[in-house]
Design brief:
heterodimer, A: alpha/beta, 6-stranded mixed β-sheet, 7 helices, 40% helix, B: 528 residues, Rossmann fold, 5-stranded mixed β-sheet, 17% strand
Chain lengths: 194, 528
């Protein structure tokens, strides 16, 4: 099996947390992993992306070739669209619908969401609202992780277990909120996957 | 054998720990920062008592590492590519003195300038200093090469350059680590009769001759290196020389089945034997290398050579990092169609964080300078360089570490008034202090604004040697106490801060203004 995932967002939104949990789960499965990250200047509120590759076979490149990604997963809608060129024609694009408007010429949100929903396979959700409903808006990342989970060939409980272990230091309440957010996202992903 | 998901930076660091490292020295710089951070967070490194504190700049770090090597222990110094410019004096001369304990000079290049002001290629420096250079193609190789490099360094008594690139430094992969760790070297400085560390001309000449005489041995080492590999292929219309991580892009482009002969290159100087074999058996040779056309230019020579393909012949772009698609294109392989970027997508540049003290400083500066139509503001390297962008449009230059003060002084010497320098606390202690001493000597009419946020912010918040002592340092250097002013960059202090800047800009002598408030990112981290 092979998953090439492009993660996108705005510096500070924490796409690397999502990448780290998927990567850790993959290592536990004995899969090969390569994950290219953005550090440095761009992290200061600019557009950021990470390439995450999982495979049962050895992986050559750290970067995913344009047009080759199975998944584009973005925690911000315009950033999802920015990375759409990465997506393979059969791939799925997932986006949090909540914009980060830190530039003056941010386009009409409805236009962006319409463009995202025009992709044959898309999951566009208000992950922030869903996270808030689960108990904490900051668990938005876990909603998005839940949304992508049906598209990853992992055993059912693997990601949830990895989330619990990742947040173990922060106590049972934090774990519970994150798992609830994950479950809400997973429902949304499953609705599209079906 | 254990398996870990490590950045290239981290894999190298763990490899060095496992190979008996005694100390690491570094100044933060993207993409090299995570090497030292790994040592600082590592229980292994703590248990083994490995030195792992930041240094004030790369030159200092280079010399500290050389000192540890002199004492007989294994040392590593880490920096980004432009940091090697700062460390160059110690670096080049460490090749003349030679080493005692193994010494690795790790330099992380940043092709495509993700977080840098140029894409200089450190392999030129290794060639210039006439020392071996290793260039890992994967995180696993970065791990494996650490021990190899220490051994090679001790065998050849030379520093070894470890050249990384952004995509390896900042990419994670599963890395297998060794089951057993090497012991650290004991303290064994050279005996008193050994004079090779004393670079008086007579000794230096002897050392330099010895270095020149070693070059054939270094080529032989490259030819025998486990990291250089000749992989034969049936289609000899073109042979391929592939350096460092470009090897992965080549494998990706051909799905792991490249039909051409390939020379995988991860140790320099160039392995003559394998190179000759490739050149003799193939009609033309494509060079894939991240960074500058270092190997390609050597093979082309000054008169050009139509057999050599790559960045200079136009098969690959002259600048910027490689990727699988560019490599596939160079071999005219079939590529998936890529849709055009939606016109809805706007550029989203980095910006100062909400609540950042630099915002308040720039707002005060902007207002104060309304009275001075001819004012020029010279910037420096750090988050505050973002003051060049709207809405501030506040700085006219950003060149290298420390250049704000020295360029302001030179411009003032030429008659620019007022000339303002903007520099962060960490950059000031890195390379600003010496320039300030010049300005003191001449009482240059410049105003130096030190934005003291108590950390090295841009690289993620590392300790800075002079934190909290800016006024004392400036007074010690000789700036008049009357013209060392301090303010706290907060909106409520705006009017007072504007007035302070106005007064010092109007003063026709040297003044320093310290704008002091902690970085919001480090503050947030502490509160967690």
């Amino acid at each position: 099996m092979k998953h090439d995932i492009v993660l996108a967002g705005v510096g500070g939104q924490g796409i690397l947390t999502i990448a780290a949990i998927i990567g850790e789960a993959a290592v536990r499965q004995g899969l090969h992993v390569k994950q290219s990250e953005v550090h440095g200047m761009a992290q200061r509120g600019g557009a950021v992306l990470a390439h995450l590759r999982l495979s049962s076979e050895p992986i050559h490149s750290d970067l995913i070739a344009a047009g080759g990604a199975d998944v584009v997963l973005a925690v911000e809608p315009m950033e999802a669209l920015r990375q759409a060129e990465s997506l393979s024609p059969r791939g799925v694009i997932l986006a949090n619908a909540r914009p980060v408007r830190n530039i003056g010429d941010y386009p009409e949100l409805d236009d962006i969401l319409a463009a995202l929903r025009a992709f044959p396979l898309n999951v566009v959700i208000d992950a922030e609202q869903m996270a808030q409903d689960a108990g904490n808006a900051r668990a938005m990342n876990m909603v998005m992780l839940g949304a992508v989970s049906p598209f990853l060939e992992f055993p059912d409980d693997l990601l949830a277990t990895t989330i619990s272990d990742t947040f173990a230091r922060k106590g049972p309440e934090v774990i519970a909120v994150n798992l609830k957010a994950f479950a809400a996202g997973r429902e949304a992903g499953l609705a599209v996957k079906r | 054998m254990a398996q870990h998901l490590l950045l290239g930076d981290e894999a190298l660091a763990q490899g060095a720990i496992d190979a008996g490292l005694s100390g690491c020295y570094a100044y933060p710089g993207t993409p090299s920062t995570e090497i030292m951070e790994y040592f600082q967070g590592s229980a292994d490194a703590s248990e083994r008592g490995i030195h792992r504190q930041w240094s004030s700049n790369e030159k200092v770090a280079m010399e500290e590492a050389l000192g540890m090597s002199y004492a007989g222990k294994r040392a590593m110094v880490c920096m980004k590519h432009v940091g090697l410019n700062v460390a160059a004096d110690g670096f080049v001369n460490a090749a003349i003195t030679g080493t005692n304990g193994g010494l690795i000079v790790t330099v992380a290049d940043d092709p495509s300038m993700h977080s840098s002001q140029n894409e200089q290629d450190s392999r030129f420096y290794a060639q210039f200093a006439m020392i071996p250079c290793l260039e890992p193609s994967s995180q696993q190789e970065a791990y494996d090469m650490a021990g190899y490099a220490f051994a090679l360094s001790e065998q050849q008594q030379l520093p070894i350059m470890m050249r990384l690139c952004t995509r390896l430094s900042h990419s994670r992969a599963d890395v297998r680590t060794a089951a057993s760790k090497s012991e650290q070297n004991g303290l064994r400085p050279p005996d008193a009769a050994t004079r090779r560390f004393v670079l008086l001309p007579a000794i230096a000449k002897r050392n330099y001759d010895a270095l020149c005489a070693k070059q054939d041995t270094l080529v032989a080492s490259s030819e025998a290196s486990p990291f250089n590999r000749y992989e034969d292929g049936a289609d000899k219309s073109v042979g391929i020389i592939v350096c460092g991580i470009a090897y992965n892009y080549l494998q990706e482009a051909f799905g792991g089945k490249c039909p051409h002969p390939v020379l995988k290159l991860s140790q320099y100087p160039l392995p003559k034997k394998q190179l000759a074999q490739l050149m003799a058996s193939c009609q033309s040779v494509m060079v894939l290398e991240d960074g500058m056309p270092f190997v390609e230019q050597m093979l082309r020579g000054p008169l050009g050579n139509d057999r050599i393909l790559g960045r200079l012949s136009g098969e690959l772009p002259r600048t910027g990092e490689l990727n699988p698609r560019l490599v596939a294109k160079a071999f005219q392989l079939e590529l998936p169609a890529v849709p055009a970027l939606s016109p809805l997508v706007k550029i989203r540049p980095p910006r100062l964080c909400d609540g950042c003290p630099h915002i308040n400083t720039y707002e005060a500066l902007g207002e104060a300078l309304k009275d001075f139509a001819d004012a020029k503001v010279f910037g420096d390297i750090g988050c505050y360089t973002l003051g060049a962008l709207p809405p501030y449009n506040a700085i006219s230059s950003c060149v290298d570490m420390g250049a704000s003060i020295t360029m302001a002084k030179g411009a003032a010497d030429a008659g620019v008034y007022p000339a303002i320098a903007i520099i962060g606390d960490s950059t000031f202690t890195h390379s600003g202090m010496t320039g300030l001493l010049d300005a003191v000597w001449e009482n240059s009419p410049i105003t130096v604004m030190i934005l003291d946020n108590g950390t090295t912010g841009m690289t993620g918040g590392q300790d800075s040697m002079g934190t909290g002592r800016m006024a004392e340092i400036c007074a010690g250097i000789g700036v008049s106490r009357d013209h060392i002013r301090e303010f706290v960059p907060l909106p409520k202090n705006h009017a007072v801060n504007v007035q302070i800047i106005r007064e010092e800009a109007a003063y026709r002598g040297l003044s320093v203004i310290i704008a002091r408030r902690e970085c919001v990112q480090t503050l947030r981290k502490k509160k967690r």
